[in-house]
Design a protein that fits this description.
The protein has one domain (2-64). Helices cover 57% and strands 0% of the residues. Helix 2 runs antiparallel to helix 3 (27-44). The radius of gyration is 13 Å and the shape is flat. The chain has 4 helices and no strands. The chain has helices spanning 2-6, 14-20, 27-44, 58-64. The chain is mostly helical and 65 residues long.
């Protein structure tokens, strides 16, 4: 979505892509994007810490949906 909507290209990581649109999104959107990135990192990079369990409350789950 970041690449298509904001035409962000040639970035090494999703974190850098999010940083590239810092000046174009609200602080709240930026926080959501980084939170989703961190959540996705758990599934994408499970070998880094297989014992990591992320505790979320029901409201956070609703927001993700």
């Amino acid at each position: 979505m970041i690449r298509d909507f904001w035409t962000i290209t040639n970035k090494d990581s999703l974190a850098k892509e999010i940083k590239a649109i810092d000046d174009r999104v609200t602080p709240q959107i930026k926080k959501v994007l980084h939170s989703l990135r961190e959540l996705g990192n758990i599934g994408a990079h499970m070998e880094q810490d297989v014992n990591l369990i992320v505790d979320i409350d029901p409201n956070e789950a609703r927001q993700l949906i």
